[in-house]
Design a protein that fits this description.
Length: 378
């Protein structure tokens, strides 16, 4: 990366040894890239390659590699025996995000030999908690990137009308983009709306647009309304190791669709005072779905998020959760880390934005635990 390509970072709490890999321009609060139309960089922001919205996003076509036009897919060295795709441009150079992704893997596993084995069968995990802002989307995005960077084939389904997972993975999701609404309500096959994620070759994302806001009501009158997502996933013609579903902060029909489609629920719990409030309601709903619609459903994983080591409260919440849920709770705990919250504004996960930050290494460890547990349970 050229010196001029670096985006200055504010002083923060990160323990990172290296500068954040901010490859794209920072977006403003409305998701727009400042001066995006002006490639001269006259807005004062370094003139760096910015992932551009793709056109003709593969409607009816096979999925394309997540690389700029004229890129070719190649297979490179293996990590822990799992071969990973990467992409090169015609000039023989990797796209910037792919370079950052490779750099991230080197930060986590300087010696190679990482253990993030692929499961023997597809794992469908719904990331759910009807409490808002507990880290569902952040968890979905970062686990997906970590797993994909280690050879797992992953698809993220954004099931939240807010479209935050789509934003976090820098996938176009403006009005008019075919999205999960088209799948649930209009019977469009999932493969026609799944988009490649720039720089992360094994990762796809099914975006959510604002259209999805109406789905909760429209689903009521649709045939087999609770099974729409299950059927769409079953009809997907490609193999995936992980399907990660980012649920909205509610227990409506969208979340029910996610719970019916999944075998596993991952509940992120924020290490805050009100964290456990409402959890019983979520567990009751999961039990109802299990009893009536999906006997295979299980709360397999609890992840503690936004842990602030300076507070005794966080410690107390952790103890409560571990006492209650036992070994469903991952050993890895995600700290409150400013890099994690900065990353989406650069159109990246923290995994590539600042791979050495405490946020990224914790999500990396959580992904590794999830992968190892999955293999053990097979
Ligand atoms: N570990 C972390 N450290 C610092 N900030 C975080 C961390 N995890 C999440 N955040 C920030 O907290 C906010 C809420 O996170 P996120 O959007 O992932 O929660 P959510 O449960 O998906 O929210 P919603 O219920 O609205 O869908 C976001 O601004 C995110 O950037
Ligand atoms: Mg969310």
């Amino acid at each position: 990366m050229h010196e001029s390509d670096k985006v200055s970072k504010p002083n923060g709490e990160s323990l990172s040894a290296t500068a954040p890999a901010a490859t794209g321009r920072r977006r403003n609060a409305w998701g727009a890239t400042p001066g995006a139309a002006n490639s001269s960089g006259a807005d004062g922001v370094a003139d760096v390659p910015v992932p551009q919205p793709r056109t003709g996003r593969g409607l009816g076509l096979p999925l394309r590699p997540a690389a700029p036009a004229k890129a070719t897919a190649t297979v490179v060295a293996t990590d822990g025996g799992v071969s990973r795709e990467t992409t090169t441009t015609e000039a023989g150079q990797e796209p910037p995000l792919a370079m950052e992704a490779r750099r991230a893997v080197q930060v986590w596993n300087p010696g190679g030999g990482v253990e993030m084995p692929r499961p023997t069968r597809r794992r469908v995990m719904s990331v759910a908690n009807q409490k808002g802002g507990v880290g569902k989307t952040t968890t979905t995005v970062n686990l997906a990137v970590a797993l994909a960077l280690h050879g797992n084939r992953v698809i993220v389904i954004d099931l939240d009308p807010q479209g935050n997972a789509s934003t976090g993975l820098n996938v176009p999701h403006h009005a008019g983009v075919p999205d999960i609404y088209s799948v649930l309500i209009e019977n469009v096959p999932l493969i026609e709306v799944a988009q490649a994620v720039d720089g992360i070759p094994n990762l796809r994302c099914v975006p959510a647009t604002i259209d999805l806001a109406g789905a909760e009501i429209e689903l009521v009158s649709v045939v087999a309304r609770e099974q729409r997502l299950t059927r769409a996933i079953a009809a997907y013609p490609e193999e995936f190791d992980y399907v990660l579903i980012d649920c909205p902060p509610s227990l409506g029909l969208l979340t029910v669709n996610a719970l019916v489609a999944a075998e596993e629920v991952l509940i992120p719990i924020q290490c805050e005072y009100y964290a456990l409030e409402g959890l019983n309601q979520l567990l009751n709903n999961i039990n109802l779905v299990k009893a009536h619609l999906n006997p295979h459903l299980d709360v397999s994983t609890i992840l503690l998020t936004m842990y602030d080591r300076r507070t005794r409260l966080a410690d107390a919440v952790e103890q409560d959760v571990r006492n209650h849920f036992g070994d469903k709770v991952l050993r890895s705990v995600i700290p409150r880390n400013v890099r994690v919250s900065e990353a989406p504004s650069y159109g990246q996960s923290v995994m590539t934005y600042d791979p050495a930050s405490r946020g990224a290494t914790s999500y990396y460890e959580a992904a590794q635990e999830i992968a190892l547990r999955g293999v053990k349970n097979d």
